[in-house]
Amino acid sequence: MTEPQTPRVAVVTGAGSGIGRAVARLMLAEGWSVALAGRREAPLKETAAGHPEALVVPCDVTLPDGVTHLFEETRRRWGRVDVLFNNAGIFGPSGSVDEMDLAGWENTLAINVTGAMLCAAEAVRTMKAQEPQGGRIINNGSISAHSPRPLSVAYTVSKHAISGLTKSVELDGRPFGISCGQIDIGNTRTEIMDTIGVGSGALQADGSRRVEPMFPVEDAARAVLLMAGMPPSANVGSLLVTAAGMPFIGRG
Fold it and tell me: Per the database record, which ranges form the Ketoreductase domain (predicted)?
């Protein structure tokens, strides 16, 4: 008789829209048990679509108690966490460093950096304590972790910080079987692309505006699932996925 497989448990933040929604839905379709986190309950329920292995947990990742509750609920349901997709984030205010509103700057860093740190910390605590020990954290960076868009200082700084978080978690997690990698995605077709005008004309380094190619969010989700499904003996430390032909190589 075939032994029943232990469920693979993932936590996906920012699961109410965009890349987070696509990743959560693909994981559920591929047999994962998934805790869906986000600020608003209604979009999370839309993502879950009544799937029996989806757990909806409204959560503001900038609030430590909320993040603790998210992982407590996940452990209560399934007893462990195998993968965290650390995805919640915002683009933040547009502007150069001398134009930056302090409140907008602080809000961007609170969500994109502090929120990611709080979720990684809870995931590591869980992964250290569970049996078998270990797990995987996948941080959603951006091609802005490599090369900025014009007038995006808050977002760009936050995504460079994610690269440091990824490397530190990977290093410190080694003795406990915890790996960490980063996916940097460019121009997948999501709501944030409308914010920066990719489909109508995004600002370029020379001051011009250019309609840029995009690719389906479902393809970005497949790349995340590739990272999530690696065996414990392997880790994808860095994965860069962009729309073919977008202005990244040579940007600036």
Answer: 8-186
